[in-house]
C-alpha cells in the first residue's frame, strides 16, 4: 500500500518549508517496491532505496528516474544504509550479522562481521545502522541482538565498542540509528529509551536529548542541523546544541530512515507503506553533508 498526497501540499515553517512529494521515485514498469527500510543520497544526488525485496538496492537520479539496481546475490535483510564521503555505500545486512562496504555499482570491497554468525556484545548481532565519519571511520549501531556501538578503522580494524542493555548513560535499548557529525560527535537513536545519546568517538558520554518517542533515525546536514524521525510519527529538527528548531508530521507513518541531498531536500523511508516521501525544500537551505 502507498499513500499519495494532493498536489500542492506544503509543510513546515520558518527555515524549514517543504513541498511534499509522496510517493517519490519511479521504479521500472512492472516493478513494485517492497518494505523500504532506509534511504541515502550520494555526492551527485543519486538516491539509494534499501528495500526488503529483490533487488534490495535501487538507485534513482535526483528527479526520481530509475538508474540501476543491485545486491540480490548477497543482501538478505535490508536495514541501515549510508553513503560515505567517497560515495562508497555501506549497508547493514541485518539477519546475516554483517556490514558491507560496496562501490556505487554494488561491488563488495569490505566485509565487517562474520556472515551468519551472531556475537554477544561483539560485532554483530542483527546490526541496525551504520555511519561513517569524515575521516572514514565506521560506526555501527548493533541494535537488535546487542545493545552496543562498534567503531572500526577505514580498513575495517575493530577499534572498540561501548554500550550495554539498560537505560543509563551509555546504555541502550535498541540503538536503531547512528550518525557522526562534523565535530566527530557520535549521535545514537536509542529507540526504546526515547532519546538520542551523544558520545565522543571513543564512547565517552556527552549528553542526551529527550522529548522523543521511539526515535528511528538521524541525519545531520552541512550546517549541523540534526534531523530525527520518531514513531509519533514526527520529524524534528535540532540545532547542533540540541535546541528544537522545528517539528512536524510530514509522513503517514513513522519514517524508518531519513537523508538529505545537496539542495536541502529530505527523503523519508516509510517502511510500512512501501514508499519514499520527498520533502522538497522551499526556504533557504544549506549544503548537505557529504
Key structural traits:
mainly beta, four-stranded antiparallel sheet, 25 strands, 290 residues, 44% strand, Neuraminidase, disordered C terminus, five-stranded antiparallel sheet, globular, single chain
Topology:
Blueprint: E1 10-13, E2 16-24, E3 36-41, E4 47-51, E5 57-60, E6 66-70, E7 78-83, E8 89-93, E9 98-102, E10 108-112, E11 129-132, E12 138-142, E13 148-152, E14 158-162, E15 175-180, E16 186-190, E17 195-199, E18 205-209, E19 217-220, E20 226-230, E21 234-238, E22 244-248, E23 257-260, E24 266-270, E25 275-281
Antiparallel strand pairs: 1-2, 2-25, 3-4, 4-5, 5-6, 7-8, 8-9, 9-10, 11-12, 12-13, 13-14, 15-16, 16-17, 17-18, 19-20, 20-21, 21-22, 23-24, 24-25
How would you explain this protein's 3D organization?
- With 290 residues, the chain is an all-beta fold.
- The chain has a single domain, classed as TolB, C-terminal domain (Neuraminidase).
- It contains no helices and 25 strands.
- The protein has strands spanning 10-13, 16-24, 36-41, 47-51, 57-60, 66-70, 78-83, 89-93, 98-102, 108-112, 129-132, 138-142, 148-152, 158-162, 175-180, 186-190, 195-199, 205-209, 217-220, 226-230, 234-238, 244-248, 257-260, 266-270, 275-281.
- It has a five-stranded antiparallel beta sheet, with no helix packed on it. A four-stranded antiparallel beta sheet has the order 3-4-5-6, with no helix packed on it. A four-stranded antiparallel beta sheet has the order 7-8-9-10, with no helix packed on it.
- A hairpin with a 4-residue loop joins strand 8 and strand 9 (98-102).
- The chain is globular, with a radius of gyration of 17 Å.
- The two termini are 32 Å apart.
- Residues 286-290 have low confidence and may be disordered.
Amino acid at each position: 500500500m502507498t499513500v499519495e498526497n494532493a498536489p500542492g501540499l506544503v509543510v513546515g515553517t520558518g527555515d524549514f518549508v517543504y513541498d511534499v512529494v509522496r510517493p517519490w521515485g519511479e521504479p521500472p514498469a512492472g516493478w513494485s517496491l517492497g518494505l523500504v527500510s532506509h534511504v541515502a543520497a550520494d555526492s551527485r544526488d543519486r538516491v539509494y532505496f534499501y528495500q526488503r525485496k529483490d533487488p534490495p538496492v535501487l538507485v534513482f537520479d535526483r528527479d526520481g528516474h530509475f538508474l540501476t539496481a543491485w545486491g540480490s546475490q548477497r543482501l538478505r535483510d535490508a536495514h541501515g544504509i549510508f553513503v560515505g564521503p567517497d560515495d562508497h555505500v555501506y549497508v547493514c545486512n541485518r539477519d546475516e550479522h554483517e556490514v558491507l562496504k560496496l562501490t556505487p555499482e554494488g561491488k563488495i570491497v569490505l566485509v565487517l562481521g562474520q556472515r551468519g554468525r551472531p556475537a554477544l556484545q561483539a560485532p554483530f548481532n542483527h546490526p541496525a545502522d551504520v555511519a561513517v565519519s569524515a575521516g572514514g571511520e565506521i560506526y555501527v549501531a548493533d541494535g537488535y541482538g546487542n545493545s552496543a556501538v562498534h567503531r572500526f578503522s577505514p580498513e575495517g580494524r575493530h577499534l572498540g565498542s561501548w554500550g550495554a542493555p539498560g537505560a543509563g548513560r551509555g546504555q541502550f535499548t535498541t540503538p536503531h540509528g547512528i550518525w557522526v557529525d562534523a565535530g566527530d560527535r557520535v549521535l545514537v537513536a536509542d529507540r526504546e529509551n526515547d532519546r538520542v545519546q551523544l558520545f565522543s568517538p571513543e564512547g565517552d558520554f556527552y549528553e542526551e536529548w529527550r522529548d522523543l518517542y521511539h526515535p528511528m533515525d538521524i541525519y545531520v546536514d552541512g550546517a549541523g542541523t540534526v534531523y530525527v524521525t520518531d514513531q509519533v510519527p514526527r520529524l524534528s529538527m535540532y540545532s547542533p546544541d540540541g535546541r528544537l528548531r522545528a517539528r512536524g508530521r510530514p509522513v503517514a507513518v513513522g519514517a524508518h530512515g531519513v537523508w538529505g541531498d545537496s539542495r536541502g531536500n529530505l527523503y523519508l523511508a516509510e517502511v510500512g507503506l512501501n514508499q519514499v516521501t520527498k520533502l522538497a525544500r522551499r526556504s533557504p537551505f544549506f549544503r548537505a553533508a557529504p
